[in-house]
Design goal:
Blueprint (H helix, E strand, L loop, with lengths): L1 E8 L8 H8 L7 E8 L4 H10 L4 E5 L5 H14 L4 E5 L8 H6 L5 E3 L4 H13 L9 E3 L3 E2 L27 E4 L2 E2 L17 E2 L2 H13 L4 E4 L8 H14 L4 E5 L7 H7 L7 E8 L3 H7 L6 H13 L3 E8 L6 H12 L5 E6 L7 H9 L2 E2 L7 E3 L5 H19 L4 H11 L2 H14 L9 H13 L3 H14 L14 H18 L4 E10 L9 E10 L3 E8 L5
Parallel strand pairs: 1-2, 1-3, 3-4, 4-5, 8-11, 11-12, 12-13, 13-14, 14-15
Antiparallel strand pairs: 5-6, 6-7, 9-10, 16-17, 18-19, 19-20
């Protein structure tokens, strides 16, 4: 029997972890050949269909998520029309809470697997191999025979063979997902993890073996998918130490509960090299009433101390999350919380409207809370009693500006000056949002050079200091092509100083394969450059290492 496991990613760089788990768990089934096919939602449907049919499968299993539900079900319908006798099974978080109505709408679907799929999937394949019917399989709804009983997920995660050791996981795309635990100790009502408060962990031996496999192969980025990686601080420290001992080039992303960070962990994190670890921390809201409504604790002063320590005393990249449109929170309250979060200068701040996901407690409470949401994936909130659709649209636009300006890391001085001029980040971003919306720039996002020009037009009506801050950011992000951002030319003496310094730098770089460019700019309006300062910017490009920029002050003209 030939079995095809299929999923559709939102980007090519993404790689499946669920399908390799399913394949590895069933690897020893005699007479069963399991193939994995990973595509993207951007590929033509007919092309994917042809590829799947060329495999001549007896059974196809689709892993379904919010980003691929529509296209996956279309593919299933087309597969059924092309091969009416083909068994088609769907599973994953996006269909785990569907029932017989899904089978009624899509006649080609044979079954739905609910929840964690390894155990039910193996039994399903075993029965098909033996020619038995599939009635009564726990957590499987099979067309015509009904649904099997509920069943707890696997207790011992080590019974799932490593998909890496088995050669089932694709590690060539630059990003690899890794799981060291399942479940979450918290009960946030907007999250599916609220249904599974029991946390199960792979053994340390298994975790270390998988980590070593990836580190020895210099996988560029490993993203840990654990909902709260440090649910057990001692366990988290042991894994951190193992990575620090063995890592060569890989970077690691963890979802962390900041409230669980203790002094010993913070001491350890001070030793992490720059850029090796990224922590994603969900703050979500700073409204006490809202946090109570969604089942999250309110951040206390110890929480903020830990966050400040991470930002100021370690090299960990700090990614913070806020969620808009949560119950009991209006736009002003949300923006006030955003201002507080930005005081900590995270490297990245993400704002998203809440998604009212099927199967979550929030979905069950939505009607009583007065929440209206899109009935189609990704089930984004559309309005609440506290936030109109227009309010939520403003948040989406502010998030877009944050991504362009703050998260890109290229406009730090510009945003700092604009914040001071407007009296805070919310007012600054709202002022810029109005400018952006009036010119329809949210519809057609500008490219890098265009982005600086639009910001220059915005700054022209405000202050010389803001324009100069933008010019400084431009020079720091790459050699400027447009010198009209720098109205004052350097003196002949300053140009001579710069040339001598460039020649000295070139002599030191000789034979190292580094390309060097430079640029000289004059500043006089920013406080740190008054009354007048001339800066030399050096731009070094080396294969495999990208661009590095440094700046030096030139001696003032006599």
């Amino acid at each position: 029997m030939r079995v095809l496991l299929v999923t559709l990613h939102s980007k090519f760089v993404h790689a499946s972890l669920a399908l390799p788990y399913l394949a590895a768990y069933c690897e020893d089934l005699a007479g069963c050949e399991i193939l994995i096919r990973e595509c993207t939602i951007h590929e033509p449907k007919e092309q994917i269909l042809a590829m799947l049919l060329a495999c001549a499968p007896d059974l196809v299993g689709f892993s379904v998520y919010i980003w691929n539900r529509g296209m996956t079900l279309e593919l299933a319908d087309a597969l059924h029309e092309a091969e009416p006798d083909l068994d088609i099974v769907v599973g994953g978080p996006e269909v785990s809470f569907d029932g017989p109505e899904l089978l009624a709408c899509h006649p080609g679907l044979s079954a739905i697997v609910r929840g964690e799929g390894e155990a039910p999937w193996r039994e399903l394949l075993q029965r098909r191999l033996e020619g038995r019917d599939c009635s009564g399989i726990p957590r499987v709804l099979w067309r015509g025979v009904g649904e099997g009983p509920a069943a707890a997920p696997l207790d011992d995660l080590d019974t799932i063979p490593s998909p890496f050791a088995a050669g089932r996981a694709d590690i060539t795309r630059g990003l690899v997902y890794l799981e060291t635990s399942r479940g979450c100790p918290f009960g946030c009502s907007f999250c599916l993890s609220a249904r599974d408060r029991r946390v199960r962990s792979f053994s340390m031996a298994r975790i270390e073996a998988d980590l070593l496999y990836l580190m020895e192969r210099d996988v560029p980025q490993v993203k840990l998918v654990d909902r709260t990686f440090n649910f057990d601080p001692a366990r988290a420290r042991a894994i951190f130490r193992f990575i620090l001992r063995h890592n060569r080039k890989s970077r690691f992303h963890f979802e962390i509960g900041a409230a669980l960070l203790d002094g010993e962990t913070l001491d350890l994190l001070r030793a992490v090299p720059e850029g090796m670890f990224q922590f994603e921390i969900g703050i979500q809201s700073l409204n006490a009433v809202t946090l109570a409504a969604i089942g999250r604790p309110f951040p206390d002063e110890a929480f903020w101390r830990r966050l400040r320590c991470l930002r100021e005393e370690t090299h960990v990249v700090l990614h913070l999350d806020l969620i808009g449109g949560l119950p009991k929170e209006n736009l002003e309250q949300f923006l006030s919380g955003m201002e507080r979060v930005l005081e900590f200068r995270p490297h990245n701040l993400q704002i998203e409207p809440v998604k009212v996901l099927p199967g979550t407690p929030l979905r069950a409470q939505a009607a009583s809370l007065g929440m209206r949401f899109d009935p189609h994936p990704p089930y984004t909130v559309l309005r609440t009693p506290e936030c109109s659709f227009a309010d939520l649209d403003r948040l989406r636009q502010i998030d877009r500006l944050l991504d362009l300006l703050y998260n890109s890391g290229r406009f730090g001085r510009f945003l700092e000056v604009l914040r001071k001029e407007c009296g805070g980040y919310p007012a600054a971003l709202e002022t810029l949002r109005g400018f952006w919306k009036e010119r329809e720039l949210f519809r057609l996002p500008p490219k890098r050079e265009e982005l600086f020009r639009w910001l220059w037009r915005f700054a022209e009506s405000r202050s010389e200091m803001l324009r100069e801050a933008l010019a400084l950011d431009l020079a720091r992000s790459g050699r400027p092509r447009e010198e009209d951002f720098f109205p004052e030319a350097p003196t002949t003496e300053e140009r001579h100083q710069a040339q001598l310094r460039v020649e000295e730098e070139l002599a030191g770089l000789k034979g190292r394969g580094v390309k060097l460019q430079h640029f000289v700019a004059v500043f006089r309006h920013l406080p740190e450059f008054r009354p007048r300062t001339s800066l030399l910017f050096l731009y070094r490009v080396q294969a495999g290492q990208g661009l590095t920029v440094s700046e030096e002050r030139l001696l003032p003209p006599k």
